Amino acid sequence: MPTGDRGLSVSGLSARAGSFTLGPVSLDVPADRVLVVLGPSGAGKTMLLETIAGLRPQQAGQVSLAGTGITGLPPERRRIGLVFQDAALFPHLSVRDNVRFGPRARRAASPDGSGDLLHQLGIEHLADRSPRSLSGGERQRVALARALAIQPGLLLLDEPLSALDQPTREDMRALLQRLLAELEIPAVHVTHDRDEALSLGDDLAVIVGGQLRQTGPAATVAAEPADPDIARLLGWSELGHGTAGSGTARIGQLVLHNAADGLHGPVQAFYKPEDIELRPMTPDAPADGSLIAHVDRIAYTRPLARVTLSCDPPITALMLHRDVNRLQLTAGNPVQVNLPPDGLRIFQSHARA
């Protein structure tokens, strides 16, 4: 995708730390888009941000921002705002002076905008406080204000919400959604949390083992994961191993016609638990993509209930609480289970069926 005049372009970027190698990674982030980099711990997500920011030497590749190559520039000359997981505030400075630090270090001639940023982020009442006296959410708001105070051409966020408790994380996620939508610069947000990735990202890049596995619009990647690792990261559950041939896949007692075009031999199937449909038993035989099952147990988690089903293959459905009540589901109930085609992904596998 083109980056436009103010976007970020990363081409063939690679870096090394000990025996671990990142890349090569190529990414484009337009100025009006938020790219979320999703991956498990140790995948190389933070290394990617550090290499883009110039905090880590690269082995190969190019980084351009707003149409200008910045590969050879030191970090302080790249006009990149950074927000780290631990906020990394200066403990000896007040909140206001933390926010002012970047512009002053760069001898910026522009008027002091710290007051506006503190107001925008709802922390103006903390201006004279020490970072030591702040909560985790407050520290991250200060870190965000400090990153924006230098009027960056790019904002990089390295798991800034991961250390926060659940209510604070949800508040900060809502704040980031609003703020990133208003910014007119590219932003790259790193996380291992799929809900965070899908709520904040316009585009998604999935990194596993230092390799870029899939990129694209967040909704497209979430609906069409390219391999089993990506499916798991995005909340798909493993249905099991089976065999495919002539367009039909068989997973346990489940027969899926027209679901495995181009696949032959061992396959591995995944499903979206929230797409599972449960219906009362009928005298008719199960249709294609359906199974007869018994309810094993129901966990009333929030916001969706988790209904574990005894069948072959085993399946867990995520359902609205009102639907559990409407169907009068209890342990031992027989039900018909339907797996919609859009909620299934089948991959070639080398495992024994």
Description:
This protein is an alpha+beta fold and 353 residues long. It folds into two domains: 8-233, P-loop containing nucleotide triphosphate hydrolases (Rossmann fold, 3-Layer(aba) Sandwich), CATH 3.40.50.300; 237-348, OB fold (Dihydrolipoamide Acetyltransferase, E2P) (Beta Barrel), CATH 2.40.50. Helix content is 24%, strand content 35%. The chain has helices spanning 45-53, 95-105, 114-120, 136-149, 166-182, 194-200, 218-223, 228-233, 321-326, and strands at residues 8-17, 20-29, 34-38, 60-65, 68-69, 80-83, 154-158, 187-191, 203-208, 211-217, 237-245, 247-251, 254-260, 265-271, 277-280, 290-299, 305-310, 315-319, 334-338, 344-348. The strands form four sheets. The chain has a six-stranded mixed sheet, with helices on both faces. The longest helix has 17 residues, at 166-182. The protein is globular, with a radius of gyration of 24 Å. The two termini are 39 Å apart.
Structural domain count = 2
Question: How do the helices and strands follow one another from N- to C-terminus?
Answer: EEEHEEEHHHEHEHEEHHEEEEEEEEHEE
Q: How would the global form be characterised?
A: globular
Number of strands: 20
Low-confidence stretches: none
CATH architecture of the largest domain, by name, is 3-Layer(aba) Sandwich
Give the spatial strand order of the biggest sheet: 6-7-8-3-9-10
Ends: how far apart? 39 Å
- Approximate strand percentage: 25-35%
CATH class of the largest domain: Alpha Beta
The profile of the biggest β sheet is:
6 strands, mixed
Question: And the CATH topology of the largest domain?
Answer: Rossmann fold
Whole-number mean pLDDT: 89
The value of Rg in angstroms is 24 Å
Q: What class do helices, strands and sheet pairing give?
A: alpha+beta
CATH homology-level superfamily of the largest domain: P-loop containing nucleotide triphosphate hydrolases
